[in-house]
Amino acid sequence: MIADGLPLLEATVLWSALLAPLPMGMLAWRFPPQRIATVLLIAMLLLPASLWLLHRVAVGGELQGAGSLGGLLLHWRMDALAGLLLLLTQLVLLASAAYAVCYQRVSALHQRAYARYWPLLGGLAAALGLIWVAADLLTLYAALELMGLCAVGMLLLLGEKSALMAGMRYLLYALVGSLAWLLGAALLLGASGRLDLAGLAANGAPEAVTGIAIALLAAGLLLKAAIFPLHGWLVPVHASAWAPVSALHGALVVKASFFILMQLWQRLVPEAVAAAWLLGGLGSLAVVWGGLQALRTNALKQVVAWSTVGQLGYLMLAFPLLTGTSAAVATLAWQATWLQLAGHALAKGAMFMAAGNLVLAAGKGGLSDLAGTSRRLPLSLMAFGLAAVSLMGLPPSAGFTAKWLLLTSAILAGQWPWVVVLGVGTLLTAAYVFRVFRFAFVEDEHRPEVRSLPAGVDLTALLLALAALGLGLGAEWPLALLREEGTP
Amino acid sequence: MSGGLLVLAALGTSLFAALLIFLLPERAFRARTGLNLGAALIKLSLVAWMVWGLSRGREYAVEFAVLEELAFVLRADALGIMFAGLSSLLWLFTTVYAIGYLEDSPNRKRFFGFFSLCVASTFGISLAGNLFTFLVFYELLTLSTYPLVVHRGTYRALAAGRVYLRYTLTAGLVLMIGMVALHALAGDIRFGQRELLAEFGPEDRLMLVGLFWVLIAGFGVKAAIVPLHGWLPRAMVAPAPVSALLHAVAVVKAGAFGIVRLVYDVYGIELSAKLGLLNGLVAVASATILYGSLRALAQQELKPRLAYSTVSQVSYIVLGVGLFGPLGTIAALSHLLHQGLMKITLFFCAGNYAEELGIHRIDELDGVGRRMPLTSLAFTVGALGMIGLPPVVGFLSKWYLGMGSIQAGMPWVIAVLVASSLLNAAYFLPLLDRLWFRPGPDHGVGEWPEERRLGRLETHAWLLVPTMATALFCLMAGALAGLPFSPLEWATRVTNVEYLP
Asked: What does the pLDDT look like over B63-96, one tens digit per residue?
């Protein structure tokens, strides 16, 4: 793919940073890394590249371009949001990789299965990167499919029956979602003859066609993002996957679909207030339903997975707050959404890792098996707790700062229902998190000794959770970049 | 050292101590003890340095932007440093006490780690320079006290912890919504920028009154204002040093301090009076004072009686805040410190009785004065202070409250004070009678519930010394109230500098 008419250096760095994970993953398939140092070395190459790109975007504004692939013209653009998301992705992937290196030493994963984790990770990294920068429906489709396939492949690593079932179920859902997407894209192509987002926004198809098309696209994306009531596939998938994989799924994979939906919405139907309120309503139901289910389930990883269903609901509140509201409200909601997304990605990644550690050490995954872990596994429990602080939206954390912004935005817009939703969500989250802690603090029961874990697994989870906390206080840097760019 | 660094260093002392304690292994008893005491001493001296510097007009502040138009601000003003001074002084004593109290018990690492975090939060609360920063540390305090409340891990402790969280997290949420709404209305109000809200016209009055009560409800849960006090008596299952922390140093004080900040530094006393908010505050406080005392009278166990006494005593602070005029303000601010000194003494004593003799019920106290004279002496000092007898500090609080109520034109408040003092006497004097004048096991009547003989003195030295020290402070702060840097003198200074209407 060739960029035309653009700073060549930036484009080269961007595309090497985006695609480099693919060969790296292949290499690691052949020689699976056994030490964290190897993983960190690779990060030394990728992270500075993203930081430099972000700097270029902040100084010189959006980068964009198009490249032809056969007869097709594919568009891409990189703004501050895409740069920040790229950075976030790399951080979380790096954490998952580092975690996996340590975790596989103690978990019962076959070496050959472990080796297969790496090309899938590379593919996921490339797919996510593509999604952040893609600016036409075709590239987005290809990237989404690549992401979905890598995600399913990762689910099958464990080879357990439950994971297999969940993986197949996920594949089925994802295929239905893709079908809806293809239909929508075809409608738009037929009506306006083009697929690039900017072009579609400028001289779009007739309103009715756009409406139907966006409805189809949205349905497909909502299914992939597991937004209530289309969340059925998420919990078995996230709860049964290998811990480093669960962390990736919960932190990043579901977010990509949300990101695409937001992009389409902003460009194609920025005025659809009723539909936006519908999405907000779905999000509210997700918050309540996810919270209630997390409160009822008796397995630790399921609690964490249901929590994802609830937390994704917060993101949906962005639609009513961005559609047809004043500039001040929209700016606040825009920042709140991406901060919430980033905070949740870091915290949920940390929480799945911590949960994986607790389950591994306790030997079983039930909540009642956690008795006494507060004494025996203080570090894992601490990581779990710190991640939970961000999910509950308690200070100091990205979740808290995002909630503050979201509340301000809802109050300024006079959209009081969302204030109630945020309140209920906070209390429900606190309820299921502290339910876990109550089990962990029980001292009366006698339990056999838990197995000890390598320090790396606890440390990775802890660092990721601390990043979620730190982002709460250091939010001004990324948010200032977003503000300068303005809401689209 | 520059001003900002000093603030950060003082905050960092306890944060760093918490981190190190979490990293140390459970069995590293000596290192942990050294770390605890060292951090407490360093912090106390840093705060003392700031008190000295403030009195010479130095500035200590640090701030950075968290969001557009929202800053994280830590600033040492006279009021904040007063609360910081109290918490770091009492932290030292509570640390010593806790080391003695938890000897040989499991999970000490977790306990002291969260204990340090708790103190860091209290320090943050005291120096917070706007409502946002206040909220950050206020919620951190909730989180760091929960593991302390459920420390024993028994069914009762976990149930109490659940009630505690229900109350405090809901309150935190209410507080956050109120603060966000106020922020949306008036922007980032630094403590002391009273003119911002005073400028609003009559059309926003209703909103301001509504937000005031929303915020008071949020603070009122931690300050244990009736009917939001339900968590406090139940949290009694926690170990004695935690009770001391909850009642005297951190939690209820944080709530009361929040109310002080809200009235004096956000709304301003004049706007509050103009909006008619103070009358409501005085009414709520009076009801809480009487209700708490009545419930205390009905308790048969020592710690619950002290707990309800806290409900009543903390509302003296709220009462003083509600009395318009400098004397009421002095009463409120000085009682913030006085109550802490007296209550911590009483809880230390209750802990000593429970540890040494296994005493939990009031009717088991007969004749303890002979077996544990020093502890009982300290208890007597605390109890007489609560009743309001000179020269113990409690007398000063009540005196200024009475004077303040006349100044504010609410003489009926004196009736509340008299009634409350009579009730205080009714529930404390019988205890003193049992301690000193009834025959007990040491006179050959009956036997102690569970005697342990913890040390060569009447009990373990680590338990006895802090108890005596805080009792001594109660007496000194009362008898030497006129000297510079006494609580009363500093409260008067704060009032004169900042709040004189």
From this structure: 888 888 889 999 998 889 989 998 899 989 999 9
Closest C-alpha to B106, from A385, A378, A435, A364? A378
CB atoms B22 and A403 under 8 Å: no
Which amino acid would we find at residue B350? A
The conformation of residue B495, written as its DSSP 8-state character, comes to I
ipTM of the complex model: 0.91
Q: Which helix (H) or strand (E) holds A353?
A: helix A327-362
Q: Which two tokens stand for residue B309?
A: 């006494």
Q: Searching chain B, which residue's CA lies closest to the CA of residue A441?
A: B153
Nearest to B169 by CA among B218, B125, B235, B225: B218
B/e letters for A212-249, b = 16+ CB within 10 Å, e = fewer, are bbbebbbbbbbbbbbbbebbebbbbbbbbbbbbbbbbb
Q: Which residues of A have a CB under 8 Å from any CB of B?
A: 335, 374-375, 378, 382, 389, 394-396, 400-401, 403-405, 407-408, 411-412, 419, 423, 426-427, 430, 434, 437-438, 441-444, 472-473, 475-476, 479-480, 483
B259's CB contacts (< 8 A; 6+ apart) are B216, B219, B220, B223, B281, B317, B318, B321
Among the listed residues A225, A481, A479, A463, the one whose alpha carbon sits nearest the alpha carbon of residue A346 = A463
Of B67, B139, B183, the CB nearest to A395: B139
DSSP string, B344-358: HHHHHHHHHHHHHH-
DSSP bridge partners of B64: B72
Q: How far apart are CA A38 and CA A32, in angstroms?
A: 10
Distance to chain B for A407, nearest Cα, Å: 7
Looking up tokens 């999405």 gives A279
Residue holding tokens 């202070």? B385
In this prediction, residue A44 carries a pLDDT of 80
Contact between residue B367 and residue B443 where contact means Cβ atoms under 8 Å apart: yes
Residue A2 has a pLDDT of 43
On the 0-12 / 13-18 / 19+ scale of CB atoms within 10 A, B457 is middle
Helices in B223-367 by DSSP H: which ranges? 231-234, 240-244, 251-260, 269-274, 277-298, 302-322, 326-357
Nearest CA in chain B to A386: B143
Q: Are A135 and A198 in contact (CB under 8 A)?
A: yes
With vertex at residue B169, the alpha carbon angle to CA B163 and CA B175, rounded to the nearest 5 degrees, is: 135
Taking chain A (488 residues) in runs of 10, the rounded mean pLDDT of each run is: 60 87 89 85 84 88 81 85 93 92 85 90 94 91 92 86 85 90 90 83 76 90 89 87 90 93 88 91 95 94 94 94 90 94 96 93 84 81 93 92 94 93 95 91 68 85 94 90 77
pLDDT of residue A1: 42
For residue range A242-280, list pLDDT tens digits in order: 899 999 999 999 999 999 999 999 888 888 899 999 999
Is residue B363 within 8 Å of B282, Cβ to Cβ? no
- Phi, psi at A363, each rounded to 5°: 90, -25
Chain A residues touching residue B137 (CB < 8 angstroms): 395
Question: Residues A135, A141, A146, A147: is their CA dihedral positive or negative?
Answer: positive
User: Tokens for B388?
Assistant: 């309001």
Query: What's the pLDDT tens digit per position in A187-219?
Result: 988 888 888 888 888 766 677 888 898 899 999
- Confidence bin at B459 (pLDDT 50/70/90): confident
From CA A470, how far away is CA A458, in angstroms rounded? Answer: 18
- The shortest C-alpha distance from B76 to chain A (Å) reads 20
CB-based contact B251:B145 (threshold 8 Å): yes
The string of pLDDT tens digits covering residues B398-435 is 999 999 999 888 889 999 999 999 999 999 999 999 99
Q: What pLDDT, on a 0 to 100 scale, did the predictor assign at position A448?
A: 60
